[in-house]
Amino acid sequence: MRRNPFSTRFTRPGEIPFVFPAGHSLESVIAAIEQPGAQGAIVGPHGSGKSSLLETLSQHWSKLGLIEQRVRLTASRKHEVIPLGDLDSDSLLVIDGFEQLAFWKQRWIRWRCQQKAVRLLVTTHGDCGLPVILITQPDWPLALKLSSMLLASDVTPYEADLRAVWEEDPGDIRDYFFRLYHWCELNGIYQSQGQFAQQ
């Protein structure tokens, strides 16, 4: 069975590990938010890996005895219920897409979390007044590394093509993978029994 290495099943958040920028690590992000009442933001543009980082972190909260409650907000889902009444000092509220909320609601959520000693971790496209824990800023070296991971092979023969695809719209890893899906289809590059080969 032929499978495109950049199909959604391989590239969706949680399927590939988040690659931390220099000076940051899984441990440093967890340490910034593990104390009761701690608040912080992961900041970066659309498609820069914020949701992937949340998936990587999610596997570790229970090891700290924390109960994660995640809410994902989008332009069409701005009015999702945020269950503050059910949270306490053992809880971590994660809001993916915090910028979708009105400023007054952001402030209210932050205040309620402080009152209840609930940890608050958000993703946002820009400054929202919370301490910034990590900034996601994809560049070409990261894009090449992720491409190599997904292709599971030496990408040297393809590097010029991959770079050209990246330069079409640099900065958005999600859209880069989408374009690479079509690039693989055009060039006959598929996964077959755990290996990638070009026909």
CATH fold call of the largest domain: Rossmann fold
- The mean pLDDT is 90
The helix-and-strand class reads alpha/beta
Order of helices and strands: HHEHEEHEEHHHEE
Count every helix, treating DSSP H or I runs of 4 or more residues as helices: 7
Report the C-alpha radius of gyration, rounded.
19 Å
C-alpha end-to-end distance: 14 Å
> Helix amount, in percent?
25-40%
Number of domains: 2
The major beta sheet can be summarized as: 5 strands, parallel
Structure summary, number of beta strands = 7
The CATH superfamily of the largest domain is known as P-loop containing nucleotide triphosphate hydrolases
Q: What fraction of residues sit in β-strands?
A: 15-25%
> In the CATH hierarchy, what is the class of the largest domain?
Alpha Beta
Biggest sheet: strand arrangement: 2-3-4-1-5
Low-confidence stretches: none
**CATH-scheme architecture of the largest domain:** 3-Layer(aba) Sandwich
Overall form: elongated
Protein name: AAA+ ATPase domain-containing protein
Organism: Bremerella volcania
